């Protein structure tokens, strides 16, 4: 794994959370500095990130085997779209629409992905009310960063647009129901980050920077939110170390 040798400017607002990223308490943002190192940093931060992406991509291909529009909310650097394009197993009429509120991230997504069937838009996911021709809506660690009260309306808007047989694929950091389990998850996550070369000081600072910015819900709350939005069955597609993947199906006549 590439590790940047960039020398940090400690006059910037914040303290190190990685070798080339600083962040202030309660002020984590996906700015140019984060975007430049995001693909490396996210793998250090999320256990099994590549496996998560592999699961998302394989499931997406099954929903898009005959084509359709996939919305990637919080697309970041376009990793999910890029992997789907590289595998080239979706239907020939498949289109990808990436949405993010970070211009720096979108710039990298456009560089990474083929514009022939992918487009990227600058927008706040929390304010999205329309998903034209949606077959699949993917949210990989996205809703956790928007205000809790705005999450259900986004899912309801997606549900009202998704074609019968389509789905929402939601990946979220979750909060445990039990304090003991939460402590175990926190310890496991800390150990993972340390194994990736992050120092204890960096790990603590990242947690401080995310305080009040990343608000996790429990698995039960996320499942209930999807069901309340009008989806049919909600299936757990993975659950590990405080991260969960949920697949919510669209059923019934439109």
Describe the protein's architecture and organization.
There is one protein chain. Helix 2 (49-63) crosses helix 3 (79-87). The protein has a single domain (1-254), classed as Vaccinia Virus protein VP39 (Rossmann fold). With 254 residues, the chain is of the alpha/beta class. Strands 5-4-3-6-7-9-8 form a seven-stranded mixed β-sheet, sandwiched between helices. A two-stranded antiparallel ribbon has the order 1-2. 39% of the residues lie in helices and 21% in strands. The chain has helices at residues 32-45, 49-63, 79-87, 103-112, 148-161, 179-195, 200-210, 219-228; strands at 15-18, 21-23, 68-73, 94-100, 118-122, 134-140, 167-173, 234-240, 243-249. The radius of gyration is 18 Å and the shape is globular. It is built from eight helices and nine strands.
Structural class: alpha/beta
Strands, count: 9
* N-to-C SSE string, H for helix and E for strand: EEHHEHEHEEHEHHHEE
- How much helix is in the residues? 25-40%
The name of the CATH topology is Rossmann fold
Let me know the average pLDDT: 93
User: Which parts are unreliable, with pLDDT below 50 for 5 consecutive residues or more?
Assistant: 1-11
CATH architecture field: 3-Layer(aba) Sandwich
**Tally of DSSP helical segments:** 8
